[in-house]
What we know:
The chain has one helix at residues 56-59; strands spanning 16-21, 28-35, 38-41, 44-45, 51-53, 63-66, 73-76, 85-90, 100-103, 111-119, 125-128, 136-139, 142-151, 157-165, 170-172. The chain is built from 1 helix and 15 strands; from the N terminus they run βββββαββββββββββ. It has 2 domains: 13-42, no CATH class; 43-172, Jelly Rolls, CATH 2.60.120. The strands form 3 sheets. It has a 7-stranded mixed β-sheet with strand order 4-6-8-13-14-10-11. Strands 5-7-9-12-15 form a 5-stranded mixed β-sheet, with no helix packed on it. Helix content is 2%, strand content 46%. By secondary structure, the protein is mainly beta.
Amino acid sequence: MANTTFNGPIRSENGFQVVSKNSSTGAVTTEFTLNGDGMQVTPVALADTTAISLTATAHGGRVSVVPALSANCTLTLPSPSAGVHFKLIYGGAAEETENLIIDTGADANFFLGGIIHLDSNADNVSVYADGNSNSILTLTDFGLFEINILAKDSTNWYIWGNQEGADAPAFTDQS
């Protein structure tokens, strides 16, 4: 279907849906629905794998659910584009023994902000990125978390949220 431009309000008795179609199988997946109940965005269940490249198209503006992991996992962010937002939550049932690494891909694309660490065995602390080169966040043996990442511009990412576990998260530069 071609693009259509309207001048004036669009009315629908049964709402709107944004869908994607798999070019190989033809399967249609609903990305989000807007109706009288509000906007409902389908969450993204991430795979239990060692590396995932997040994209604005598949993950931006949606909740991405990190499963219980069987190995360390690196989530790589795309190049920042102002306003692109990722929300990551933990969907497992127990504190992990693996690490989750969130990587911007380059020190030039560093994080601004920090994470509140809710310590399960000692003191609670806030952990901040250095604001000039920290481009990796590592959640070591993490428990529950909710992390928000928002592209400030075409260079940097704002980051905020919380993470529970015995080990504090850490911001670092690329190695």
